[in-house]
Amino acid sequence: WNEELKYLAEKYRLRVIEDNAQAIGAVSRVEGFNGTYKTGALGDAAAISFYPAKNLGALGDAGAITTNDTELADVIRALANYGSIEKYINVYQGVNSRMDELQAAFLSVKLKYLDKENRARRQVAIWYDKYLNHQDIIKPSIESPEGHVWHQYVIRTVRREELRSYLEKQGIPTMIHYPIPPHKQFCYHQYNDLDLPVSVLLSREVLSLPVSPVITESDVIEISSCIADF
Q: Any idea what DSSP says for residue 188?
């Protein structure tokens, strides 16, 4: 977010939708804002994922959209309810995307612990930054302690497949987020020929290491030690 983006949104009467799927609870300072803000508070609305593996996860699939625009909130509620504001009267072409009460109840309890668990994830990232060292690995930078909630701890290496296979043999799980950049997906075939070298490079090098609120310093030391021997 910056003044240029704000200017474009106002000039062309655009809505700014924030992708907050993996950043809930992060705090940052941004150009054009006084003080700090939490992710989800910048644009006209923000999309949040409550997939079970997220920092704030439900028992099953769930998600939410946040906004402080009353009219927009009414439209969003209708779109999630068959496009209906009043039963059997469909104003929009909507979907059936309501969160069930069980997921909402579960999330309302877990929400109380979100900040605590995010702090634990930040500590894991600090441990990785301290103990993880290898000439073939690029670590993510830690610029601001509260500016990241570390849903994933993603390293980069040109030897990704070799490292991933090695760690798997050591009993250390990893994931690739994500192996195919969006513009190379079949569903966006009209964009397949775009020249986006940075996106392609990252898709070939990124590897996510274990991170969660329950990982200990000794766990990180063990993982880092295995990688040092790679």
A: G
